[in-house]
Design goal:
Length: about 260
């Protein structure tokens, strides 16, 4: 974990409240692995005072990238910051498991900006035996579709308004894919990242073969504040999203 000042290289408005933040931060970029996150704060203001956690979309050379959806004051101010230095603390959290899953196929399911760490996972490990399913409310920006094609190749999409791909929730799409035999739950390892409501809807998957990447609210990012605690399924207390996660086996936690 490093606390450094990073330099914003570009900040691209993707529309639909999303933006692509590109930062020069060599000391974090060279350590970052898929599933980890960085806590970010704008330097020249104390508002908001607490850093905000963002999943890493890509890390290569001395550059680290983020796919962010504006969801509050911190992300809105960051979306408006086009140049200059920002305060970075990271990489934080445990990385996703290395893809040593034998003959099992990896099924990656992302909701909204939850696709960011999953795309990093595919790219970092040069995955081959996988399926990638993206759930969104409406048709994603062309920029994002292009980036998905570049990194993932073939992928499946569901949109709640039916503007692209399957019409409906991503959970209903996955259930249909299972019914049609396109996905075999008994021969798959599932890795999911997205809003809590989406993760809860996938509790029908085999818990021993399903990993969920949580988007917990947190103040510190390194295990002190306990703001991101999740309940253990065995009743033995809580785990912290920031240090024990962000990824957990569905078998181990209560959603």
């Amino acid at each position: 974990m490093k606390k450094i000042e990073g330099e914003i290289l570009n900040n691209i408005d993707l529309g639909e409240g999303m933006f692509h933040l590109i930062v020069s931060a060599e000391e974090i970029a060279k350590r970052a692995k898929p599933g980890q996150f960085v806590n970010i704060r704008i330097l020249d203001t104390l508002c908001p005072f607490i850093r905000r956690p963002y999943s890493i979309w890509s890390a290569e050379g001395d550059v680290i990238e983020f796919l962010i959806k504006v969801s509050g004051l911190g992300s809105r101010l960051l979306s408006e910051r086009k140049r200059g230095k920002i305060d970075l603390l990271g990489p934080l959290g445990r990385a996703y498991p290395e893809p040593n899953f034998g003959d099992n196929e990896t099924v990656l399911i992302g909701g909204g900006t939850g696709i960011a760490p999953l795309m990093f996972y595919v790219k970092y490990y040069s995955l081959t035996n996988f399926k990638f399913i993206y759930g969104a409310k409406t048709c994603p920006p062309d920029y994002l579709i292009s980036r998905l094609g570049e990194i993932i190749g073939d992928f499946l999409v569901s949109t709640e308004d039916g503007s692209l791909g399957f019409k409906g929730l991503v959970v209903d799409y996955v259930k249909e894919l299972i019914r049609d035999g396109y996905i075999d739950p008994q021969k798959s390892i599932f890795i999911l990242c997205g809003p809590l409501a989406m993760l809860k809807s996938f509790q029908f998957l085999p818990p021993e073969n399903t990993y969920v990447s949580m988007e917990g609210k947190m103040a510190c990012g390194f295990g002190v504040c306990m703001g991101c605690a999740v309940k253990r399924r065995d009743g033995k207390g809580y785990l912290r999203t920031c240090t024990d996660g962000t990824i957990f086996r569905l078998l181990d936690i209560e959603l």
